[in-house]
Amino acid sequence: MIKVINEYVEDGYLIKEFSVDGVNVLYTDKTLIVANIEPSPPVEEEKELTVEEMQAKILLNTELLLIQKELGL
């Protein structure tokens, strides 16, 4: 039967050494320790714009393009 004979943390990894006879290492397992991971913020779905909001957005974009043209950008 395989048993864990040694378990320790090294360089951010949890190391486990397994053995059949309790003396000789048969297998070594390295598992990355991941701590303090902050969950990503929920993605907000874009709400549909009202007609007035779309008209205002188009007007602002048009004004921006005209200013860029005047400045030669």
Pattern of helices and strands: EEEH
Instruction: Please describe the biggest sheet, giving its number of strands, its sense, and whether it closes into a barrel.
Output: 3 strands, antiparallel
For the residues shown, what is the average pLDDT?
89
**DSSP helical segment count:** 1
Taking all Cα atoms into account, the compactness measure Rg is: 30 Å
Strand-residue proportion: 25-35%
The portion of residues assigned to helices is: 25-40%
Structural class: alpha+beta
- Report the strand count: 3
Stretches with pLDDT under 50, minimum 5 residues = none
Largest sheet, spatial ordering of strands: 1-2-3
What is the 3D form? rod-shaped
**Structural domain count:** 1
Q: Gap between N and C termini, in Å?
A: 74 Å
Q: What would your notes on this structure say?
A:
This protein is α+β, with helices and mostly antiparallel strands and 73 residues long. The chain contains one helix and three strands; from the N terminus they run E-E-E-H. Strands 1-2-3 form a three-stranded antiparallel sheet, with no helix packed on it. It is rod-shaped, with a radius of gyration of 30 Å. The relative contact order is 0.12. The model has no long low-confidence stretch (mean pLDDT 89).
